[in-house]
Design brief:
Strand order of the largest sheet: 2-3-4-9-7-8
Helix content: 40-55%
Distance between the termini: 36 Å
Mean pLDDT: 91
Strand content: 15-25%
Order of helices and strands: EHEEEEEHEEEHHHHHEEEEHHHH
Radius of gyration: 21 Å
Largest sheet: 6 strands, antiparallel
């Protein structure tokens, strides 16, 4: 991941550049309660891989980091504005009352910053309704407060979402080629010696996935011909699902459309994988069962196993990518997470 000032344009993939004072001042400004349109009692600041999130009472404000790499570009205020607007538009599909809009950060002639004020616009923030943290699905799983009704509501929400999504136009060969390219990329990345991952786990998994593409070609082609490849969410993890009376799902992958082009069975298999990792297989399974009963789509178990294995390798790949970030303070965390996903993939392969 590259962090750059607004004036920096020379690409240096995955090398962090020195943050500009202006960038640091933005974060400092947004960390102070008195600087919000409705002054907050306090501001809770959370730093993610690509954003800062500022929690103020009933609202959440997201400031994109000025980053650029081979799959996204937030390097200028204009690029961040476009991304903020896309984030609001796309996430309103599954969280219509959460994403409230986009707010400019301005600076006047005296150098004073203000949210939605007069003067030069120097950045943009996504403004959101703050969700109850204890009702996020990962937290609810940990506290054993998830009910079967909660899971069925999530499944029904997703079923309606996928049914309304228009099919993405692609050939059967193109879909298989997309999957094959990702599998080969996972192998190349996860085999790198600097990550010291257990290759003895990886190779049988990758071999099994590639064999599936060859041996089950008709099964994959049927998904394309049925119009089941859609623009989905792209990052359907428990921490993005809030179990309100009407569930909402946030934080889709807005920055790259290719990452959202998925078979619903693939996306739901990914959610099932993440629930299994949290020792809540029943919850993930019930979401999938509800989708099946609501849509009449009953993907074969061997297809679901393939998708789970496939996503486990993708998640292992994403985990080791965090090691490229100079700000990572706990490299062992991400290495261990990659190993955990590889072990899950190996268990899935053994079950095939």
């Amino acid at each position: 991941m590259v962090v750059i000032s607004d004036a920096q344009t020379e690409p240096q993939d995955y090398k962090r550049l020195r943050s500009s004072p202006q960038l640091e001042e933005k974060v400092a400004f947004l960390s102070r309660p008195e600087n919000y349109p409705v002054p907050a009692r306090c501001v809770e600041v959370k730093k993610t891989h690509m954003s800062w999130v500022f929690l103020t009472g009933t609202l959440a404000w997201k400031l994109k980091k000025p980053v650029r790499n081979d799959y996204l570009d937030f390097s200028t205020p204009e690029a961040r504005r476009r991304n903020c607007e896309e984030e609001v538009r796309l996430n309103r599909r599954l969280a219509p009352d959460v994403y409230l809009g986009v707010t400019p950060l301005t600076v006047d002639q005296c150098g004073r910053m203000q949210l939605d004020g007069r003067g030069e616009i120097i950045d943009w923030l996504v403004r959101m309704r703050r969700l109850p943290s204890e009702r996020m699905l990962d937290r609810a799983i940990a506290s054993h407060t998830v009910s079967d009704e909660d899971a069925r509501k999530v499944g029904a929400l997703l079923a309606g979402f996928y049914k309304q999504a228009p099919p993405v136009q692609m050939t059967t060969a193109e879909y298989r080629q997309r999957l094959a390219a990702e599998i080969h990329t996972s192998r190349c990345e996860l085999e790198k010696p600097e990550y010291a991952l257990p290759v003895e786990l990886l190779e049988p998994v990758i071999t099994n996935q590639l064999e599936f593409l060859d041996q089950e070609m008709k099964l994959l082609d049927a998904r394309v011909r049925a119009g089941l490849i859609v623009e989905a969410h792209g990052d359907l993890r428990p921490e993005h699902i809030c179990l309100e009376s009407r569930p909402v799902i946030i934080d889709c992958l807005e920055f790259n459309r290719d990452f959202r082009i998925l078979d619903p069975a693939s996306e739901l298999a990914f959610l099932a994988l993440e629930c299994e990792r949290l020792e809540a297989s029943h919850t993930g399974g019930l979401v999938l069962q509800t989708y099946c009963s609501e849509t009449g789509d009953h993907p074969p178990e061997r297809l679901l196993l393939f998708y789970r294995s496939y996503h486990a390798c993708l998640r292992a790949r994403i985990a080791v990518w965090h090691l490229r970030d100079d700000e990572v303070r706990d490299p062992a965390k991400w290495t261990n997470k990659a190993k955990e996903y590889l072990q899950l993939a190996a268990c899935i392969t053994a079950a095939v």
